[in-house]
Amino acid sequence: MEKVPMTAEGYHALDEELKRLKTVERPSVIAAIAEARAHGDLSENAEYHAAKDRQGWIEGRIAEIEDKIARAQVIDVSRLSGAQVKFGATVSVVDEDTEESSRYQIVGDHEADVKAGRISLSSPLSRAMIGKEVGDVVEVNTPGGVKAYEILKVEWL
User: Fold this and answer.
1) DSSP string, the chain
2) Environment class of residue 85 by beta-carbon count within 10 Å: exposed (0-12), middle (13-18) or buried (19+)?
3) CA 41, CA 44: separation in Å to the nearest integer?
4) Domain named Transcription elongation factor GreA/GreB C-terminal: which ranges (predicted)?
5) What is the SS3 string spanning 65-102?
6) Selection from 138, 135, 112 nearest residue 127 by Cα
7) pLDDT tens figures, 23-70
8) pLDDT digits (tens, 9 = 90+) for 130-157
9) CA 64 to chain centre
C-alpha cells in the first residue's frame, strides 16, 4: 500500500471534511431521499434521483478520504530543515524570462492549491526542484515551452 505524504494541516482538513460528510451531509441526503420517496412514483421523481446521485457522491468521497487517511504519512514541516528542496519546503523562485517571482510550498496531491501558493509534490515544477538548492536553476516543460526558474530561498514554515 503506497503511503500518501501530507502536511499536518492537510491531514486535519481531510479529517474535518470526513466528519462533516458523515455527520451533516450523509444524514441530510438520507432525509431528502425519505422525503422524495414519500411523494410517490420514483421513476419520474427528479428530487429522488438527484438525492440518490448526491448520496452516491458523498459515499464515494467518504471512501476516498478514509483511504487517504489510512495511507497518510503525515510530515511535520516545522521539524524539517536543510538547504535542499524537499516535501514541505516553501520555495521562492524567479522566472528567468519575465523576472516574475513566486513562492510555493510543496505539499501532497490533495492539498495543492496554486492560488494559495501550494503546489503538488507530483507537479512538474516540484519534481524539477526536489533536491536542488538556493542558486540552482531548474527547467520545467510547460505547455508554452520550457521555462527556467532560479531558486532564491528555501524555507521551512
Assistant:
1) ---EEEEHHHHHHHHHHHHHIIIIIHHHHHHHHHHHHHTS-STT-HHHHHHHHHHHHHHHHHHHHHHHHHTEEEE-GGG---SS--TT-EEEEEETTT--EEEEEEE-GGG-BGGGTEEETTSHHHHHHTT--TT-EEEEEETTEEEEEEEEEEE--
2) buried
3) 6
4) 83-155
5) HHHHHHCEEEECHHHCCCCCCCCCCEEEEEECCCCCEE
6) 138
7) 999 999 999 999 888 887 777 788 899 999 999 999 999 999 999 999
8) 999 999 999 999 888 899 999 999 999 8
9) 13
What angle, rounded to 10 degrees, do the helices at 26-38 and 46-70 form?
160
- Gap between the terminal Cα atoms of the chain: 29
User: What is the C-alpha separation between 38 and 70, in angstroms, rounded?
Assistant: 38
Burial of 60 (0-12, 13-18, 19+ CB in 10 A): exposed
C-alpha–C-alpha distance, residues 33 and 52, integer Å: 7
Q: How far apart are CA 49 and CA 33, in angstroms?
A: 8
Amino acid at 154: V
> Residue 151 burial (CB < 10 Å; 0-12/13-18/19+)?
buried
